[in-house]
Amino acid sequence: MVTNDDKWFIFECDEDFRLLKIFGISNIEIKIEKHDQLIKIIYEESLHKFFDFVKNLRLRSTYFECDIVIKDLQGKLHYMNLGGVEFENKYVVTVFLNRFELFEELIRINNYKLNVLKEKMKSIISSTSIFQEFTSLNNEIINIQRELSKKNAKISELLKKTDEMNKKLENSNVAKDRLFSILSHDLRTPLTNTIQLIDLIIENKYNFEKVLKDGIFQLLSDSVKNSLNLIDSVLEWSRCQLDQISYNPSNFLLEKYINDIVLLYSKMALSKDIDIILDIQKTPEVFSDPRMISTVLRNIVSNAIKFTKPNGKITIATTLSEQKVKISVIDTGLGMKEEFLINILNTSINKKTTGTNGEEGSGFGLILVKELLKKNGSDLYIKSVYQEGTKIYFYLPCVQDLQ
């Protein structure tokens, strides 16, 4: 009966271990021809063991204590044993999986050269009972090794999943700490100031004329709007982290959305005498989530206005680049130092900023922008020179490119 252990081949080699004759092969296909060197079928990482085998066989004339890895015809690797004897200035060499299966085969073969090999193996296998016992133990070991291999694979998979979960948990903790920081500082402080101003008005410490003169209502309005914008950004970002924001892509032209956003922020830009220049090239429709891209553009344009000095300039441009539409927002604002630019998208670092007119910023808008672009298969790119200005850009796929 053929078993999984009945895998071997026997051949004769010259003194340089070149193949002279194949006596027999069982259950394995190898690519070797007459006069080929034996190393042709040896896996590269086992060559050092083969060379040790050659050295020992030449010294001792008999050597069976060598494990080796063989490549079959399909390139599959087989972990086997290597043995041989010297006979008439040549070598009879055998590669086998189970020495007992091989010994049984040698008993059936009537060949005077192989009888030498068989006689040498008798010293290893002294009796049928030992042979049967060793065969049984060997089979048990093979089965145990297989089970261990399966369990190791499962353990590796579980460790990988555990590592992924730990990373998600770590990111979640960082996000939680960032949210607490925003709630305790970026939201609490402006709301506290708003309440104090309202209390002063209620207590008549500010008369109506002074309120108008000092622009208190405008301060209150700006403070509430900034807080509301921050809350919206934090909620949107939180939904991204929890994967609760739906991605609904469609085909649309960017020009309409850009015009809507310029109109939305025209009053804000006018209050600082900032010119918004549109450099919109005719481009194909893009395929993305229009609501997300609108949020992205709002945050970028709002930031540009916030950090651009009065009488400055903001350019919004679109160009076609390698079947993608490149959207750029370029300002002549404060710019960023290199160390700030490196950490600007790191949620674990507090990056509280102040605009050119004292506008407060949490640095959270660009973090949200990056998350939304990621959901649309894009990324955020920032180039900035301190005291000269900033360029923020990203790419969206053209519809014709997708087709």
How would you characterize this protein structure?
There is one protein chain. This protein is of the alpha+beta class. Among the domains are: 8-126, Beta-Lactamase; 246-403, Histidine kinase-like ATPase, C-terminal domain (Heat Shock Protein 90, 2-Layer Sandwich), CATH 3.30.565. The protein has twelve helices and 14 strands. The protein has helices at 47-60, 99-108, 112-122, 128-202, 208-213, 216-241, 254-264, 266-270, 290-306, 338-343, 364-375, 399-402; strands at 8-13, 19-26, 62-71, 77-87, 90-96, 250-252, 275-280, 286-288, 313-321, 324-331, 353-354, 360-361, 381-385, 389-397. The strands form four sheets. A five-stranded antiparallel beta sheet has the order 2-1-5-4-3, with helices on both faces. Strand 3 and strand 4 form a beta hairpin. The longest helix has 75 residues, at 128-202. The radius of gyration is 39 Å and the shape is elongated. The model has no long low-confidence stretch (mean pLDDT 81).
